[in-house]
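ping. complex inputs:
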Amino acid sequence: LLDLPPPCGEGRPSSSCVFVVRKDQDIYIQTLRKLFNESHGIFIGLQRSEEEFAGKSRKTQLVQVSKNYRSVIRACMEDMHQAAVSARDPALHSQYSTQVSILSAMELIWNLCEILFVEAAVAGPLLLRLLDWVRLHVCDVDNMVREVLSSENPSKHELFWNVVDVFVLQGRMDEARHLLSKEASANPTSVNMCRILDDLMKKMPVPSLGNTQTLTEMELKWQHWHEECQRYLQDGTFASNSHMESICKILLGDENAILEKKELMTTWYHFLVTRLLYSHPTVKPMELRFYAQSSMDLFLGGESSPEPLDTILMAAFEFELHQVIKECSIALSNWWFVAHLTDLLDHCKLLQSHNLYFGSNMREFLLLEYASGLFSHYSLWQLGVDYFDHCPEYGRVYLELHIERIPLNTEQKALKVLRICEQRQMHEQVRSICKIMAMKALRNNRLGSALSWSIRAKDAAFATLISDRFLKDYCEKGCFSDLDLIDNLGPSMLLSDRLTFLGKYREFHRLYGEKRFSEAAKLLLMLMTAHIAPCSFWMTLLTDALPLLEQKEVIFSAEQTYELMRCLEDLTAGKSDKQKFQDDDVETMKVEMLRLALARNLARVIVKEGTLEGS
Amino acid sequence: DGTSCVSVCARCLAKSDGVISIQDNRISIWSVGDLGNVGLNGEYQGEPQLLCDIRHNGDVMDMQTLSANQRWEKAHYHVDRDASCGGAACTGVICSNPEIVTVGEDGRINLFRADQKDAVRTIDNADSSTLHAVTFLRTTEILTVNSIGQLKIWDLRQQRNEPSQIFSLTGDRVPLHCVDRHPNQQHIVATGGQDGMLSIWDIRQGTMPVSLLNAHEAEMWEVHFHPSNPDHLFTCSEDGSLWHWDTSTSVSEKPSFLHQGGRSTTYFSHNTINQSVVSAWLSNDPTKDRMEITNLIPNQTLSVNSLDILGPCLVYGTDAEAIYVNRHLFA
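pong. complex structure:
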């Protein structure tokens, strides 16, 4: 997140602006990581789900996805709550508690969006869903309800009528009636009134979820019922009991009566739903905005101004999707919520391709932002990869840039990163990562590891580098290090010429050690004549030939000896006069010895080859 | 759960409903019954970046005692032990109470004893490449696999720092990531490689694997024979799958001793069991012997890094920071 100072105007001389950059702290909170991981699974499931289902079954599928997201939020809330309760440090406790309320608000908003946008509940079921929504989220009164219900004599409890009111306000008729029956049995004088009220509550028409009645039928029934309540009120049936009278007024949808119970409703959206329940139960989705605005105004009454949460909910009731997303982005500290919600709404085909000024659409923009945030985490970056995969326009570019910057502290992490790159044909990145790992290994003297990385990247140049290193070590120490590697190169020997030479050279030494001289000799010669050996190494090879030349038994044939001589002459002829002058005595002596040995060998072999067998 | 679950150990599942997992320097004991979490902050290898698998042949008490008492810092390092960036990751650990063997990215093999502060023995530069896993072959011999596709046997009784035998793959030197030995027949060894291939070796004969089975699409991180019924093998991989390899000859009727509870020998005599095993794993044509392979993960997403099995319980951990326990493996 950036906290920007006021922008420097164009006319002013460039003053230095200090940008305060803050890392996204949320990803490091332990309990939230469960949210990120589980929602990742749901996200992937959604992207992969085929759009073969059309119409109703697709909608059911999407609603299920939405419910899954919400249950993950709730689970996280539970964990966070536990953490808050058990935290001893007050600062930590307050941090967790804040998180709990943020998560609760997120679930509230998501639930409403699910009802209005994903499920797109129509008039009738819409009210039922909204009632469920309110019942689920306005829990401030739960304690009071529990207290009264668990007392010995509920009807005598001082908060008894409050609880009845709560039930009525939330449309929980059965529970209200149950309490009323207790009042009836405890207070014989009010039995009549209770019976009537009970009857009214029982008969109240509610929209049905199935297709058992049409809206018009329901409206008709409701009109009759409404008139019946009106009659009872006007007759003064409940005049002697103010509580029951107010309940009757609520049943009639009297705004003032409902508003009197402000503390029991606690929020303007509860007020909205109660209002709708008792004055317009067949409300259509598009009509919500008018009721919402007036409800908020009536409830807040000019005393307090709407909070961010209120603005967001209002935007939802007004079906202003983009406004909802925008407000949520501003209010929340990380992109998780808006990214996933927008993606879901996009799958519901509700977002037009609302192109932002740099070309990608809103869904992609939010997903990119969210995933980029994940990459700064040492282990959540793996989730980010999948999100980038599902951003068609810029996902790949973002991934390429981010994946190269993941710190590779262990080989296993590097292997995982490489696997991701290889699966997506990101060859540049594979090469660069293998090179980094190979260089690290080389610097730590792990030549085998370095070679294994070069093989993975099929990097011939690096393999050559490693072989040179081995050869250098050999020249300095006179023996090979890491024989287990060189002896077991296998087909990877062919990766680079230098590596092939190394393998073959070592084989020469092995053959020599096993006293298989003629094979060793043939190999040695081949190394030079087939130009597998680098020129710089020829002197060493020729010197290695010396002991073979000095053997009692003649090993090199005449042909081979001529070849050797030619190699020697090529080598010395290649040196300029200046070089020859700089050669020290050792060098010249070596050459001399070689010439002598070659000549002697030639002499012996001519004689040997000229001699007839058996004579 | 914390970070990517790198390693799990099911040792205590039968005894006390617990699962031990290692991630990010924390060894946690999870009670599978009620999901309570008892965390032990034992830094087993003293190295910040930590990947290891622990298999324990003792009981739970041993594990707890070990982790509470000892801490071997900088057991693995590159070049200069005390340089700040000199630490190397420890990639594998195996215990045979009281001995502990560790291997690492520095190609080093360490032998510790639970009651001794310093390493009993260290083989520096045992391997020029990274050692990825280690397991006991016999009480005095260990098996290691490395990143140039070699399987090595080390005899710890001998003082020389050379492996007693080296095996390697045919063809490309694909890195090997995991190794496990058959519980009853010690010459049968299974390894898993970077290309997801499962190799079965007979270490009595030859230097090349007996069979190569094309398995996963990415690195195979762990391979385990079922400890009490080695007709069954389990492998898990970076591609997010966990495979159950079943070579028991009668696939439809499972013998009763496979289920939780006591052994019953009414179905198979001892000889038959051995015969079926020998023919199964060492035969060159797995299709002839009706090997059944099942992927145990329905919706795979991220890598399965580690698994362990005990009796009918299977536990595995994934990169989605979750641990799964399946208590009815053969139901």
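The longest helix of chain A spans residues 56-86.
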